[in-house]
């Protein structure tokens, strides 16, 4: 889908690059495609409730299949009609209720309603679309709540899970792949402890089977900057705490699996194949990035991508792209693509860049991790050197690689905070740190050698004076 002007929207076939159909929608403010591309949803500026300003179009026939009135467009209310990833379920947030449609025939209109007084935000689970999460804000002394309901018409009487919160202004709802778990970032405008001007946030976790409901045990005070599920839906990663922020990977029972260290980070991106993680500091942070191999539990490399506005892994999991876009930033617009070891692979600058996306593909269409790793190891940095200047850390890595071709395997990573992290890693994985023990023994031996040298020097000096 391409919005060409204020009123023209074109739909293209990505395989043939041919325009399939165009829609002329006067005063259009927003447009989006349904997950399978069956429907185009548009939002128009309107002057009265008599005008149906949200229209659902069939992309194949060009016909309008459903329309409704919506007063304004906000992050929590757009798109107006939400679809599960297979388009089997469709629903809409309305006043005091969630309305469900027959996704196969939207011309039937609303087929059943789930009444939830005061509901302000909903999130339909994506794969499969079997549950819906609803947020009800705090009102008249009654705490705010998030509830999970089944989407079936006959099974919506009681919530499958529920969690209440005091001091809650807004929430971010994040379903896992498989629709078994929901992460809820609860944000309040005021921090009662007076530690943060921006209020406070907490991370909660609910499961649809009722086995878990409560706070995720984070090891550092401060805000929750970012959270993301792995593609398998079995683990999630969190960046949290006052700067320097901390990053931890948890399993679906909220047990910590891996500590990713601390640093100027507020973003985490898990690649679609589940092997690599990128930990980054974008927005008002300087753009530091750390790449991790989650399977091997080690860091692969670090680099920088200053002024990045958006960032995402490619569907095959082999490349990580960052972009500086307008209108957030009016200068230095461009894209950078990195290998999972942090080396810059591609760079292109633009006078004005508004949006950049990977073409959506299922990760299942690509090879498994061992093949990806082999192909990555065969890449030579010199051959993929871009025209633009590489970050200093990347240049240093490239020099090290070219001057010492045998040193291909990266050394075990020891972050600056290793003294503090060693006890946590020991707690998570058991046992101590052999490198730390070695360093202690080495320092003891060094001191012994220095004392022996001093003793010999003193003896030789006394012998010379005596003669």
From TrEMBL:
Gene3D superfamilies reported for this sequence: YVTN repeat-like/Quinoprotein amine dehydrogenase (2.130.10.10)
* Family as reported in the entry's similarity comment: Belongs to the WD repeat EIF2A family.
Protein name, per record: Eukaryotic translation initiation factor 2A
Which sequence ranges are marked TM in the entry? none
Translation initiation factor beta propellor-like domain: which residues?
163-356
- Tell me the segments the record calls region Disordered: 381-467
- Show the Pfam families listed in the entry: eIF2A
Species lineage: Eukaryota, Viridiplantae, Streptophyta, Embryophyta, Tracheophyta
User: What keywords appear on the UniProt entry?
Assistant: Initiation factor, Protein biosynthesis, Repeat, Translation regulation, WD repeat
The cross-references to PANTHER family, in alphabetical order and at most eight, read: EUKARYOTIC TRANSLATION INITIATION FACTOR 2A (PTHR13227:SF0)
Top-rank taxon? Eukaryota
């Amino acid at each position: 889908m391409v919005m060409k002007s204020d009123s023209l929207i074109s739909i293209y076939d990505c395989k043939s690059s041919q325009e399939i159909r165009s829609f002329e929608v006067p005063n259009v403010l927003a447009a989006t495609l349904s997950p399978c591309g069956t429907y185009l949803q548009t939002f128009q500026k309107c002057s009265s409730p008599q005008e149906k300003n949200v229209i659902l179009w069939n992309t194949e026939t060009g016909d309008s299949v459903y329309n409704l009135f919506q007063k304004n467009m906000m992050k929590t209310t757009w798109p107006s009609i939400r679809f599960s990833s297979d388009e089997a379920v469709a629903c809409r947030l309305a006043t005091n209720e969630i309305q469900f449609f027959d996704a196969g025939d939207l011309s039937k209109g609303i087929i059943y309603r789930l009444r939830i007084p005061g509901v302000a935000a909903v999130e339909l689970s994506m794969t499969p679309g079997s549950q819906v999460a609803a947020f009800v804000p705090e009102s008249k002394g009654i705490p705010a709540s998030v509830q999970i309901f089944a989407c079936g018409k006959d099974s919506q009487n009681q919530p499958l899970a529920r969690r209440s919160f005091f001091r809650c202004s807004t929430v971010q709802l994040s379903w896992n792949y498989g629709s078994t778990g929901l992460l809820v970032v609860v944000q309040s405008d005021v921090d009662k402890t007076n530690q943060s001007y921006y209020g406070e946030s907490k991370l909660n976790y609910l499961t649809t089977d009722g086995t878990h409901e409560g706070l995720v045990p984070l090891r550092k005070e401060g805000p929750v900057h970012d959270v993301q599920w792995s593609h398998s839906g079995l683990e999630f990663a969190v960046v949290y705490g006052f700067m320097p922020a901390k990053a931890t990977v948890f399993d679906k029972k909220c047990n910590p699996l891996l500590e990713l260290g601390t640093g100027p980070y507020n973003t985490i991106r898990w690649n679609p194949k589940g092997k690599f993680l990128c930990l980054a500091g974008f927005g008002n942070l300087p753009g530091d990035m750390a790449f991790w191999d989650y399977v091997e539990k080690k860091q692969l490399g670090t680099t920088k991508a200053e002024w990045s506005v958006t960032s995402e892994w490619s569907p095959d999991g082999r490349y990580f792209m960052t972009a500086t876009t307008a209108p957030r930033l009016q200068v230095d617009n461009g894209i950078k693509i990195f290998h999972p070891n942090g080396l810059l692979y591609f760079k292109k600058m633009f006078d004005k860049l508004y949006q950049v996306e990977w073409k959506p593909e299922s990760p299942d269409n690509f090879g498994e991790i061992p093949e990806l790793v082999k192909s990555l190891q065969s890449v030579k940095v010199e051959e993929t050197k871009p025209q633009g200047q590489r970050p200093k850390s990347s240049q240093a890595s490239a020099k090290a690689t070219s001057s010492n071709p045998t040193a291909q395997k990266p050394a075990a990573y020891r972050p600056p905070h290793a003294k503090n992290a060693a006890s946590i890693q020991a707690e998570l994985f058991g046992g101590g740190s052999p490198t730390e023990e070695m360093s202690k023994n080495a320092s003891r031996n060094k001191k012994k050698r220095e004392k022996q040298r001093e003793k010999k020097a003193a003896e030789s000096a006394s012998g010379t004076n005596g003669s």
